[in-house]
Amino acid sequence: MTSPRIALVTGAARGIGAAVAERLAADGLAVAVADLDERACAEVAARIASAGGRALAVPIDVSDESSVARGVAHVAERLGPPTVLVNNAGVLRDNLLFRMTNDDWSTVMDVHLRGSFLMSRAAQGHMTKAGFGRIVNLSSTSALGNRGQANYAAAKAGLQGFTKTLAIELGKFGVTTNAIAPGFIATDMTRTTAERMGVSFEELVEHGVKDIPAGRVGTPADIAAVASFLAREDAGFVNGQVIYVAGGPKD
Question: What is the pTM of this model?
Fold first, then answer.
C-alpha cells in the first residue's frame, strides 16, 4: 500500500481552511493544519484524528519567511513531503481608499500575496522532486472589484496572475496550480464584513442571495469540494485555471 499524499492547508484553524483540511483528510490525505492560532489548529487536527484521519497542527505565519521555512520543514519531517498545498490564509482590512492606511494595504498584501509566494516557493521543491504536486490558491470574486476592498481586491487579482504563472513554470514537473474564487461564503470573515457595514449577518445574507442565481449563499464545504477535486491525481490536466464558486457566472 502506498503512503498517502501529504497536504498542507494554511489558514486552516476555521472557516474555509478548516473545511478544506477536513475534506482532504476524508479523501485519504494526511493533512498539516497550519495557522497562526496553533490551539485552534490542534482542534481541527483532533477532529480529523477522531474521524480516522491523520493530521498535524503547525503554527505558521505565512508572511514571515523563516516561519514558513520552519513550518514546511516540520511538516516534511513529521508527516512527509507536502505535495498538496492550499494557500487559504487571509485577512481583511476593509476601508474606502481615502481612509485606507498603509498598514491596511501592507497587511493584506503580506498575508495573501507574499504568503502564497513564500509557501509555494517552500513547498514546490518537494513537489518537483516527487514529480507530483497540486497548488490551490484562494482568490475571490472581489478580484473583479469590490467597494471598500482596494487592498483585498488587488491581492486576490494578483493571486490569479500568480496562479497562471506557476502553472506555466511548474507544469512540466507534474505540478498543477489552480485558483478557487469564492463568492459569498458564510464564514466568520463575512460576519466581520456585516459588522463593518453596520448590518446584521442575516441582513447581509438576505441582500446577497438576491444576486446569486443558485438562490443561496455558499458554505465552506462548497469550496472544500472544489479543492478536493483539484488535489486529485486525475485532475492533472486542469492547470492555470480560476474557478469561480459563486452560485452563478462571473465575468
Answer: 0.96
